[in-house]
Amino acid sequence: MSAFIEVQGAEVTFQTRKGPFQALRDIDLKIEKGEFVTLIGHSGCGKSTLLNLIAGLLAPTGGVLICDNREIKGPGPERGVVFQNHSLLPWLTCFDNVYLAVERVFSATEGKPALKARTAAALELVGMSHATHKRPHEISGGMKQRVGIARALAMEPKVLLMDEPFGALDALTRAKLQDELLKIVARTKSTVVMVTHDVDEAVLLSDRIVMMTNGPSATIGEIHDVRLAHPRDRVALAEDPVYVQARKAVIDFLYTRHAHVEKVAA
Ligand SMILES: Nc1ncnc2c1ncn2[C@@H]1O[C@H](COP(=O)(O)OP(=O)(O)OP(=O)(O)O)[C@@H](O)[C@H]1O
Is residue 48 included in any domain, yes or no? Predict the structure, then answer.
C-alpha cells in the first residue's frame, strides 16, 4: 500500500541572478495517514522549501510528490497551511477570517447556517470564541496564531502543514499552544507536517523527526522515530529515557555531525 504523502526523488533548483542554486536534492519521504512529522535543520537548509513543495506552493524541478494517491500539482483544500506569521486579513474579524476559508471549501454543498456553525466550532476548538468579533490588531500574537490554526482546521484538511507556527511566540504561550495542538490532532486525527527549529518542540510533538543536512543541495540526513505513547505530558516526559534519548539523537545530529558553519566575510 502506498503512503498517504510520498515525496519521490524531489529536487529544487532556484534560478538566481548568480546562476542556478540547488536548494534540495534526492528527497525521499513517506508519511502515513495520522502521522505527526517534523522537519528540523539549520537555518537555510530547505525546510520551508520542502514544506512548500508538499503544500503545492512550489513545483519541484525534479521528482514527484503525491498526496492521497494524486500528484501534487498546486495548493488544494485537502492541505491546510499555517505560517509563522499569522496571515489573517486585518480588516476582517476573527470570525470572518475563518468564515472566508470555510466558505471557499464548503459553500457548494452547504448553506450559510452550516458554514457559520463550522466557523464557530473551529474558533471554539482553539479556545478563541471570545474573540469572534475582534479584528486581528485587537488580539495578541498567540491569539492570532490560534485563529490561523482554526482557519486551517476549519477547512477539514487531510493534512495540516505548519511552518514554524509558534516561532514568534514567547515560551509560555508556545508551550500552551503545543499542548493544545496535540489535543486537537488527537481529536481530528490529522496528518501533520511541521517545520521547527526547536528540538524540544520536535520531540514533544512528533512521531518522526526528519533531520536535514545543511544546504546548498540539502537532503534528508536521518529520520528519528519518537517511540513515545500519546497523550504526552511535557512534565512527565522531561525525565523519560525515550524522550531524553530522542533529544540527544537530534542534538547530536544538528550540533556534532552537521554543525552549521557560518560563512564570515573576510
Ligand atoms: N525563491 C528563491 N530563490 C532563490 N533561492 C531561494 C528561494 N527560496 C529559498 N531559497 C534558498 O533556498 C535555501 C533554502 O531556503 P528555505 O527557506 O527553504 O530554508 P529553511 O530551512 O526553511 O530556512 P529558515 O530555517 O531560516 O527559515 C536557502 O539558501 C534560501 O536562500
Answer: yes
